[in-house]
Amino acid sequence: MPHTGPADEPDKRTLRRENLAARNRLTADDVRESGEALAARALGMPEVARARAVAAYVSVGAEPGTLALLDALRARGVRVLLPALLADNDLDWGEYAGTGSLARVRHGGRMDLFEPAGTRLGPDAVTEADVVLLPGVAVDGRGLRLGRGGGSYDRVLARLERSGARPALLVLLYDREVVARVPAEPHDRPVDAVVTPSGVRRFR
């Protein structure tokens, strides 16, 4: 993938490391309460309220919690798609049918992920979503998102662009993770909005 220059990468690594360290200082109650607040904020957004299908993910560790949102969407009759990590870091997708439909999967030496245990729908299934929830560790005032560094969601965004799909792109973060500037690369695509426990900020 193209880079704007070698100076960007240490900046990204530093910001990622600092924000992940701050997350690791949160208590289980902090994470749960934030997840409930995030669900309420996201469910109040018009694009989420009218969505028939949402591509999401299951939060792990101290990530901003998503399970409350997933269950609320499912209760509304929304089709919820969850990713399954492939060997090449691309994402396949399956449907969420409650916490019993999740399998705990370890990929190499990385953290365990919760993935859909049912039928795989293929990487292109994400193009059917009206809303795509993106994980991240920071976003800036331009809507540029800093991910975990694996590149999986860069592939998702490129796939959406190639297909002509135009879902609402939302990133779920803690309030302190909305920062002045994220180091950018030519392939980075801005999100439409960031949802934090205290509110929603739109970028376009």
UniProtKB/TrEMBL annotation:
Residues involved in ATP binding: 12-16, 145-153
Q: Which GO terms describe its biological process?
A: folic acid-containing compound biosynthetic process; tetrahydrofolate interconversion
Q: Name one Pfam family in it.
A: 5-FTHF_cyc-lig
The answer, when asked if Nuclease is one of the entry's keywords, is no
EC number, UniProt record: 6.3.3.2
Q: Which InterPro entries match?
A: FTHF_cligase, FTHF_cligase-like_sf, NagB/RpiA_transferase-like
Keywords, A to Z, come to:
ATP-binding, Ligase, Magnesium, Metal-binding, Nucleotide-binding
Q: Which reaction does it catalyse?
A: (6S)-5-formyl-5,6,7,8-tetrahydrofolate + ATP = (6R)-5,10-methenyltetrahydrofolate + ADP + phosphate
Q: Where does substrate bind?
A: 58, 63
Give yes or no: UniProt keyword Magnesium. yes
Top class in the EC scheme: ligase
Q: Which family does it belong to?
A: Belongs to the 5-formyltetrahydrofolate cyclo-ligase family.
Protein name, per record: 5-formyltetrahydrofolate cyclo-ligase
Q: Which organism is it from?
A: Streptomyces parvulus
Q: Kindly list the organism's lineage.
A: Bacteria, Bacillati, Actinomycetota, Actinomycetes, Kitasatosporales
